[in-house]
Each structure stands twice: as structure tokens, then as C-alpha cells.
TrEMBL record, chain A:
Belongs to the protein prenyltransferase subunit beta family. Its EC number is 2.5.1.60. Residues 22-328 form the Prenyltransferase alpha-alpha toroid domain. It catalyses: geranylgeranyl diphosphate + L-cysteinyl-[protein] = S-geranylgeranyl-L-cysteinyl-[protein] + diphosphate. This is Geranylgeranyl transferase type-2 subunit beta. Keywords: Metal-binding, Prenyltransferase, Repeat, Transferase, Zinc. Catalyzes the transfer of a geranylgeranyl moiety from geranylgeranyl diphosphate to both cysteines of proteins with the C-terminal sequence -XXCC, -XCXC and -CCXX. InterPro entries: PGGT1B-like, Prenyltrans, Ptb1, Terpenoid_cyclase/PrenylTrfase. It comes from the Eukaryota. One of its GO terms (cellular component) is Rab-protein geranylgeranyltransferase complex. Its cofactor is Zn(2+). GO terms for molecular function: metal ion binding; Rab geranylgeranyltransferase activity. Binds 1 zinc ion per subunit.
Automatic annotation (TrEMBL), chain B:
GO terms for molecular function: CAAX-protein geranylgeranyltransferase activity; protein farnesyltransferase activity. It comes from the Eukaryota. Its cofactor is Mg(2+). Belongs to the protein prenyltransferase subunit alpha family. Gene3D superfamilies: Protein prenylyltransferase. Keywords: Magnesium, Prenyltransferase, Repeat, Transferase. GO terms for cellular component: CAAX-protein geranylgeranyltransferase complex; protein farnesyltransferase complex. It comes from Delitschia confertaspora ATCC 74209. This is Protein farnesyltransferase/geranylgeranyltransferase type-1 subunit alpha. The keyword Glycoprotein does not apply. Its EC number is 2.5.1.58, 2.5.1.59. It is an enzyme of class 2 (transferase).
Length: 339, 307
């Protein structure tokens, strides 16, 4: 899956949401085309993101109702070629294993219902992956938070990643959930939001990771929900888009993180959904497909995934239902979590 | 352009081609440029676990072309350690690299590792100033500043005062810089419960936020700061009524200078049975006139006013 941006730009003239269309077929062929762009230099320069790129592309296709638009067996083959002996995934073959790509690997296998294939190819594969996150010591025994890899960069993104992957694998019991929950609480700020670590500025992306982890742990009772809901709803700007922090620009990906967070708090209705849908739809390239961060910029697979996920959460007609906590099709998370 | 295949220094290495996974490895793709050649040599030195000066040169070259390639950074860090390399030299190399790649994650983690090994923050605050020049809200830079403060205890005594003066300068440059406001909170109240219980400090900080609100009444950051102090110090909300009235009043519904002031007034009015109707009016003004994009939120707030 290429992470090359473009070729097109997002830009649909403003209008009422009921008048704007979603160019579903264009988006499907846009994502399919990304795998055929290996002759471009940027394809190789973005190799360190490849597995996440595949997750974004695949999720977008599932939400568009075209789960078979990428050949399933080849996708699985690629994912497993990124799996290391230690149970972690690298972004591409030959790249070190890292929490972020381990989560993407698990999410892709879950979406494709391919845990059995994993087991067939790597004996005890699920447990192996779960143990990377646990026994390899990625959880800090003292603070409860998680590192991305053995080098120890710590961030609430990695904590959420661990909760996401382990819950999909049915292995959440491997880690100290209470301790991790305590760490999330220590990242709560005076303005009601959450940052990357205790004291770090509130940021919509980090609010999403903290809130999603607390949702998985069943501990939303620890959140000052009105206060955080107010902070999140203040992220909507006059043009309908949402930003990541006060006084910053709107962006399609923040639109997802803010809106999904509001959904976890059951407060999606606190902002203007029509205006948000309108903003996201304006970021499409109606000719060649794909979404950009804001109208006028180049499209890419990352914003395509989060644009579609946002529209799905807004119940835009024709899209498959998304899970606000996992950013995966709801049917997939239901299947995995009921096991 | 750096070329490895013709360089006698690298003659002993056979580059390892790209494997893109899957049943049909893409090694066969005739794709040759500076980057893919360098990566071929990196794969080869990694395979034989070579840690040498030339590996530092090679990783430097690849990082220049593609600083987000996390595996390259990790291999470089390993090599520095194996060679017992002079870390001050490494920091000198890192400075311009960080300036070139403002949004990169790896560079900051690498820097943090090296500075904690050096155990000396000298020069780091100047470097941060340089970094904040082009992007004064850069999340990585502010997080790194917090790490420095924590790691070297820069919130106490003379160092603490210096940190406070510095962040005051940042807010002075741009009163809407939310990152700077967050850092002020971190410096003043982030090191324990002590300061939020200190009346003099609480008053000083409330005065600071109020002065900033006078400069830009619709700016969210100092309002959030003020609310944070009030909650933390358990100050009575009603003590802010006169302040809020300077920016909004129900007597002049067409002349509201700050929706945040109107929100605060509503909160104050909501506390007293006799003024609940006024709170309702304030929420209506917010829903219909001053912040209609969040109309459902203001209506929710109105509904929570129990009779």
C-alpha cells in the first residue's frame, strides 16, 4: 500500500450536505491504485509506515462496502512477512518490530478474520504477539504506561495500541490494566483533556487514545465527561471542521479523533454533524478519489481512512458502520470481542 | 550524490536488495537511486551487525534522506553505544537535522537518550528557542522541554524562576499559544499540590490569566487556565462575577465580547435558585447568537439547570 500523497487534491465546492455526494467508486479505485505505484521514489521513502498504510487502506475499503477490493491472501502474506520471531510486527520486512505496526498487523488480521491463518503459519502466533506486548517489558512496571519498542519512547498512543491489539486477540489479561488506567488518569489536564504523558498539552489525538483505552477497560466512570465533552465540542470551527488543539487549523483526521471521542462519551450531538459531514465531503477529490486533510491539499490514504470513518460515524448513507473505539468495521470488532 | 558501489571503503560489502514481502518479492524491480542503494548497504551491515564509523556515516546519509525511518535511528543509537562515540559531537550533528525535520518523532527520542546519558542540559534551552522559531506550537518541542524540566529539576528556585520568565516571554509573543499556557501550568502547578494551595501563587496566576483575557477576551487558553486554578484551589466561582461582567452582561445582550465570559456568568447564575432564569438567558444567548455551532451543547447545559 503506497503512502504517496496525491495525485489529486481534495476540493469540492461548499454546499449543503444533502447536496454533496460521496464518490464511493472513486475512493475504491484510488485505494486499489496505491498498490501499483511502486515505481515512485516516495513509495520506498514511506516504507517505514507500510503496514499502517495497509490498515488504513483496507479499513477504508471495508467501510466503503468493498472488502474484497484487495486480494485477501496477498494481504495476509504481506502482513505475516512483517512478523518477527519475538512476536512483533515491523512496518515492512526487515524493519524492527514496533508497537504501532504490531497493532496495525493485528487489526488487519482481525479485519480479514485471519487469526486461524496466523496460527496455521506460526504456531501459537496469537499468544506470541500478545507476549511481545507483555513479557518483552513494553509495559512500565512502575507507571503502567507503554513503550513503543525496546528503546523506550513512551506515549499514550502505545498504551492504547496495547489495549487495542490485546483486546482483539482476547489477551487483555496479560497486562496490568489497573496500572495502565492509573497512568491515563495521571495524563488528565486542567482543561479536561489528555496529552502524551503527565503534564503534556491536551491534544485531540491523545484524547482519543486515552478515552478509547478507558472504554476498552470499562473505566469511563473515571472521566469528567461534561468537562471533556465541552473541550471536545470547542474543537469545531465555523467551517464545520474540527481541530486538534485550541487555535489550530481544522483537519479531517482530527475530525475523526474528536468526533469518535464525543461518540464514546455519547455526546456526538453536541456539535453540528451536518457541518462536519459537509467539511469532510469537501476534502474529496471527485475525479481520482481520496481525501485530503483540508480542501485544496493533496489526498492520501491516511486522511481517506479517517474521512470515511468520520462519515460512517455520522451515519452517512451507504457506508458500513465503524467502531469508534477501534476505527474498524463494527461487525469485525463485534466478532472478535464476543469470542 | 553519495555512491557506495564505487567507493573502495565499501568494497567488502555486498548490498542486500529490498524484500517487499509476499509471494513475489519485489527485488527484481529495477529501481536504483541513491536511497535504495544506501538502504541495500544498511541491510548488509545490519545483517553482519557491523558497528563502525562508516556505519555512522551511512545512517547519517539515510536519515538525511528519510528521517522517519525508525529502524535506522535505532541502529545508529546502537552503533554510538558500541563505539563509545562522543555524544557532544552527536548533538552538534542533531541540531540542524532537527530544524530541517520539525514534525519528526525519532529525532526527539534520540536526543532525549543522548542528553540523559550526558546528564547535562547545557545549551538545550537555547536550542529549543531555535526550534520554536518556525513553529511556536510544535508538540514535540514542548514535550521535550517538559522532559528537560522534569529530568533536571528545573522548576525549583532560581531555575524555576528562569523557566517562568521564559514561558512568560512565550505568552507575551503570542497570547493565543495554548502550548505556552499549558507549559505555564506545568511549571507552576505541575510539580505537586503545594502551589495550588498557596494563596499568593493562586492570586498571582489568576491575575496573570485575567490580564491576558483583557488583551484577547475570546481566547480560550487563559479562560481554561483560570477555570483550572479555580477548580484546583476550590475558589468560589462567584468571586469572578465582576470580572466576567466586564466582557458580557445580560443587560446588554448585543454587546458581548466573550462567549467564555457569558459561559462563566451562566455557571455563576446557575448556582443560585434566584438567578437560574438568568443562567437560562445566558445559555440561550450562547446557543442562538454567540456560539450557534454548539447549540445542542448549550441546550444540554440549560437542561441540567434543575428547577
Amino acid at each position: 500500500m503506497s503512502l504517496v500523497s496525491g495525485p489529486g487534491r481534495g476540493g469540492v465546492a461548499a454546499g449543503l450536505p444533502q447536496e454533496l455526494s460521496l464518490y464511493m467508486d472513486k475512493h475504491v479505485s484510488y485505494i486499489q491504485s496505491l498498490d501499483r505505484r511502486k515505481d515512485e521514489r516516495e513509495y520506498w521513502l514511506t516504507e517505514h509506515l507500510r503496514l499502517s498504510g495497509l490498515y488504513w487502506g483496507l479499513t477504508a475499503l471495508h467501510l466503503l462496502g468493498h472488502p474484497d477490493a484487495l486480494p485477501r491472501s496477498q494481504v495476509i502474506e504481506f502482513v505475516l512477512s512483517c512478523l518477527h520471531e519475538n512476536g512483533g510486527f515491523g512496518a515492512a520486512p526487515g524493519h524492527d518490530s514496533h508497537m504501532l505496526y504490531t497493532v496495525s498487523g493485528v487489526q488487519i488480521l482481525a479485519t480479514l478474520d485471519a487469526f486461524d491463518e496466523l496460527e496455521a503459519r506460526v504456531q501459537g502466533g496469537r499468544l506470541k504477539i500478545g507476549q511481545l506486548v507483555d513479557i518483552a517489558g513494553l509495559q512500565d512496571a512502575e507507571t503502567g504506561t507503554f513503550a513503543g519498542d525496546e528503546w523506550g519512547e513512551r506515549d499514550t498512543r502505545f498504551l492504547y495500541g496495547a489495549f487495542n491489539a490485546l483486546s482483539l486477540l482476547g489477551l487483555l489479561h496479560l497486562i496490568n490494566v489497573d496500572k495502565a488506567v492509573g497512568h491515563i488518569q495521571s495524563c488528565a489536564n486542567f482543561d479536561g483533556g489528555y496529552g502524551t504523558s503527565p503534564g503534556a498539552e491536551s491534544h485531540s489525538g491523545q484524547v482519543f487514545t486515552c478515552l478509547a483505552a478507558l472504554t476498552i477497560a470499562g473505566r469511563l466512570d473515571l472521566v469528567d465527561q461534561d468537562k471533556l465533552g465541552a473541550w471536545l465540542s470547542e474543537r469545531q470551527l465555523k467551517n464545520g471542521g474540527l481541530n486538534g488543539r485550541p487555535e489550530k487549523k481544522e483537519d479531517v483526521c482530527y475530525s475523526w479523533w474528536v468526533f469518535s471521542s464525543l461518540a464514546m462519551l455519547n455526546k456526538q450531538h453536541w456539535i453540528d454533524g451536518d457541518k462536519l459531514a459537509n467539511f469532510i465531503l469537501q476534502c474529496q477529490d471527485p475525479q481520482m478519489g481520496g481525501f485530503s486533510d483540508r480542501p485544496g491539499d493533496m489526498v492520501d490514504v491516511f486522511h481517506t481512512c479517517f474521512g470515511l470513518a468520520g462519515l460512517s460515524l455520522l451515519k452517512f448513507p451507504g457506508l458500513i458502520e465503524v467502531d469508534a473505539v477501534y476505527c474498524m468495521p463494527r461487525a469485525v470488532t463485534k466478532r472478535c470481542l464476543s469470542k | 550524490m553519495v555512491n557506495y558501489s564505487d567507493d573502495p571503503k565499501w568494497a567488502d560489502i555486498t548490498p542486500i536488495p529490498q524484500d517487499d514481502g509476499g509471494p513475489h518479492p519485489l527485488a527484481a524491480i529495477a529501481y536504483s537511486d541513491e536511497y535504495s542503494e544506501a538502504m541495500g548497504y544498511l541491510r548488509a551491515v545490519m545483517a553482519k551487525e557491523e558497528h563502525s564509523e562508516r556505519v555512522l556515516d551511512l545512517t547519517e546519509h539515510i536519515i538525511e534522506m528519510n528521517p522517519a525511518h525508525y529502524t535506522v535511528w535505532l541502529y545508529r543509537a546502537k552503533t554510538l553505544k558500541e563505539l563509545n562515540f562522543d555524544l557532544k559531537t552527536e548533538i552538534e550533528w542533531l541540531n540542524p537535522a532537527a530544524l530541517k525535520h520539525l514534525k519528526n518523532y525519532q529525532i526527539w527520542h534520540h536526543r532525549q537518550t543522548i542528553i540523559s546519558q550526558l546528564n547535562d542540559p547545557a545549551g538545550e534551552t537555547d536550542f529549543i528557542d531555535t526550534m520554536l522559531g518556525p513553529d511556536s506550537k510544535n508538540y514535540h518541542v514542548w514535550s521535550y522541554r517538559q522532559w528537560l524540566v522534569k529530568q533536571f529539576g528545573l522548576w525549583k528556585g532560581e531555575e524555576g524562576q528562569k523557566e517562568l520568565d521564559w514561558v512568560d516571554g512565550m505568552i507575551g509573543d503570542d497570547v493565543r499559544n495554548n502550548s505556552a499556557w499549558n507549559h505555564r501550568w506545568f511549571v507552576v502547578f505541575g510539580c505537586g499540590e503545594e502551589n495550588i494551595r498557596d494563596e499568593a501563587i493562586v492570586n498571582r496566576e489568576m491575575g496573570y490569566a485575567k490580564a491576558a483575557i483583557h488583551k484577547a477576551p475570546q481566547n480560550q487558553s487563559p479562560w481554561n487556565y483560570l477555570h483550572g486554578i479555580i477548580r484546583g484551589s476550590k475558589t468560589a466561582l462567584s468571586s469572578l462575577k465582576d470580572f466576567a461582567l466586564q466582557f458580557a452582561s445580560l443587560e446588554n445582550p448585543d454587546d458581548v465580547h466573550s462567549s467564555h465570559a457569558l459561559d462563566l456568568l451562566a455557571m455563576i447564575y446557575a448556582q443560585d435558585e434566584d438567578t437560574k432564569e438568568k443562567a437560562r438567558q445566558a445559555f440561550d444567548l450562547l446557543a442562538n447568537k454567540y456560539d450557534p455551532v454548539r447549540k445542542p451543547y448549550w441546550n444540554y447545559r440549560k437542561e441540567t439547570l434543575v428547577n
